[in-house]
Design brief:
The protein is α/β, with parallel strands linked by helices and 555 residues long. The chain is 48% helix and 21% strand. The protein contains 17 helices and 17 strands. The longest helix has 52 residues. The termini are far apart. The relative contact order is 0.05.
């Protein structure tokens, strides 16, 4: 029997020695041994040495905490009875630290422990108990299991980190590829649109390369088949109504939901035209799935931006009274009429006010784009915005007319100015879904009240116009005429930005003989006379909305 046990021990030691040789320094687990008796630490070191792990000794709980903070510990082997801080208290302190909440703890006790003591230890974070005298094979086996679990956890963490790194690299590569494809798509815009010619019955006569790329079917696979059966087309209205409009007007436009060969749903902007003779239909479909997602994300971002602006306004308004209160507390803290207790509470109040002031400064820091304004060319800014709107205006058959009669350079912040004019131009384009004319005019003028030199930017459209009911509320926060597609904050925020520059925004609209015209004018002080104020609030009152158009541009 003893020979068998000795052989098993020898075999176990041999396996441990082989594993220790294979382990690298990085794979070795740190085992912390805590005992106030040096002799016990030496014995534990002798028992656990064959494991090949890093053994760390501590003679007290304080020394153990020091090692825990300095090293990544896999297992803590600790004595229950120690002076100053016993094992239970040390385990409780470890569990209160987020880093050590999952560290394995094995208690070693030289005295008999009651069930109450064991429960106390488990509540403190212990995972096992070993009684003295210690059986070397048992201690080695238990410590080995926890060290191996810790090693596997760390290996998984490294693998996860490597996987995340590869995913980031792949994502970056995909992004670069998308940018390259987008550049090519701009050059070959027509070729990337799906162009389909079909009979009135729906049988496909022509299927271009753009349709192959969008839907996944090759030309020879679809010729002669019914287009809407293959694509599982869903119309925004009854199909009979679409056919009636097409037969009456010779064309139809709208968004369709279709299914590609691999089962993915795409939303396409569809334009149908009835060919001469009425025996075939030309369809041009452009994938706008990503555009719709981007617009949804932009609306959400606009809501967040508005919340941030409101927070910045509030922070600015409370900053001055907060500074006065802070100074009052500073003077009060050392006032001779106060006793020690009152001074203590005054100091606490001052510290909390300092913290509130810090939060206020942080909020203002998020609100402001930068510390100093820079020269901004209004014509250049408008051209950048028009580049972003080019595709929408071409699709909506909007004619653009530009008249830049001024250098239009002011001191300002490009991002917030771009936000103003992107909102105004975007609103004008949306007001002309069936086409129209967009006129931009930049010229030198003077502010109505101060007569100071100013740059005037006129944005006019021949869209659907603005009703008198809506005109009265146009600059109110959260008022929108776009149903769920608008936040109701665009014009309100734009007005606040323009007021910060000491400028003004006005609009006029006219409906005459079935035709509408709407004109927004923005007045910004010339750079030589301009003084940009810090954000001190946004006027929540409505603007003076006048309902008679001013006439042609520039007057």
């Amino acid at each position: 029997m003893f020979k068998t046990d000795a052989k098993m021990t020898a075999d176990s030691n041999a396996d441990l020695g082989t594993r220790r040789e294979k382990m690298s320094d990085q794979d070795r687990a740190n085992i912390l041994m805590v005992d106030d008796q040096a002799s016990k630490l030496i014995s534990y070191e002798a028992i656990l040495g064959p494991l090949g792990e890093n053994l760390i000794k501590a003679r007290s709980a304080r020394e153990a905490l020091h090692h825990l903070l300095q090293n990544d510990i896999a297992v803590v082997l600790m004595d229950v009875s120690m002076p100053d801080i016993d094992g239970f208290e040390l385990a409780e302190m470890m569990r209160q630290h987020p880093r050590f909440q999952k560290t394995a703890i094995i208690f070693i006790s030289a005295v008999h422990l009651t069930d109450v003591d064991r429960i106390k230890g488990y509540r403190s974070g212990a995972v096992d108990y070993i009684s003295v005298p210690v059986i070397p094979e048992l201690l080695r086996a238990k410590v080995s299991v926890f060290a191996e679990l810790h090693r596997k956890s760390r290996q998984l963490e490294r693998l996860n980190s490597e996987l995340e790194r590869r995913v980031e690299e792949r994502t970056e590569q995909i992004r670069e590829n998308e940018e390259l494809l987008r550049e090519r798509a701009d050059l070959l815009e027509l070729a990337t649109e799906a162009i389909i010619v079909r009979e009135m019955s729906g049988a496909i006569l022509f299927w271009n390369a753009g349709a192959e790329a969008l839907y996944g079917w090759q030309r020879e696979e679809v010729l002669g088949k019914l287009v809407h059966q293959i694509l599982k087309t869903r119309f925004p209205m009854d199909y009979s109504s679409v056919r009636a409009i097409l037969a009456r007007d010779g064309k139809w436009e709208g968004n369709l939901t279709q299914t590609t060969r691999d089962g993915q749903e795409v939303v396409v902007a569809c334009r149908k035209a009835l060919k001469a003779g009425g025996n075939a239909v030309l369809e041009i479909n452009r994938d706008i799935t990503a555009q719709l997602k981007a617009e949804d994300a932009l609306r959400k971002t606009e809501r967040l931006a508005a919340m941030g602006r409101v927070a910045g306004i509030i922070a600015h308004e409370i900053n001055n009274p907060l500074e006065a209160i802070t100074n009052t507390f500073y003077l009060l803290r050392d006032h001779p009429s106060l006793d020690e207790e009152a001074r203590y509470y005054a100091k606490l109040g001052e510290e909390e006010l300092i913290r509130v002031a810090h939060i206020t400064r942080q909020t203002l820091g998020f609100y402001r784009e930068s510390r100093h304004p820079v020269p901004v060319s209004i014509p250049g800014l408008l051209d950048e915005i028009l580049e972003l709107q080019t595709r929408r205006m071409e699709f909506s058959n909007i004619t653009l007319q530009k008249h830049y009669r001024s250098r239009g350079t002011i001191q300002g912040f490009p991002v917030e100015l771009k936000q103003v004019f992107l909102n105004l131009i975007g609103n004008a384009a949306q007001a002309m879904p069936a086409g129209g004319t967009l006129r931009l005019h930049v010229f030198e003028s003077s502010a109505r009240h101060s007569r100071r030199p100013a740059v005037c930017i006129s944005i006019c459209d021949t869209g659907i116009g603005i009703s008198p009911e809506n005109a009265k509320r146009l600059f109110e926060p959260f008022f929108t005429t776009k149903s769920t597609k608008g936040t109701g904050l665009g014009l309100w925020i734009s007005k606040g930005i323009i007021q910060k520059y000491g400028g003004a925004i006005r609009f006029r609209t006219l409906s005459l003989g079935g035709h509408n015209a709407t004109c927004f004018r923005v007045f910004l002080p010339d750079a030589e006379f301009q003084k940009i104020d810090e954000p001190s609030g946004v006027d929540l009152a409505t603007s003076s909305a006048e309902e008679i158009v001013e006439g042609s541009h520039g007057r």
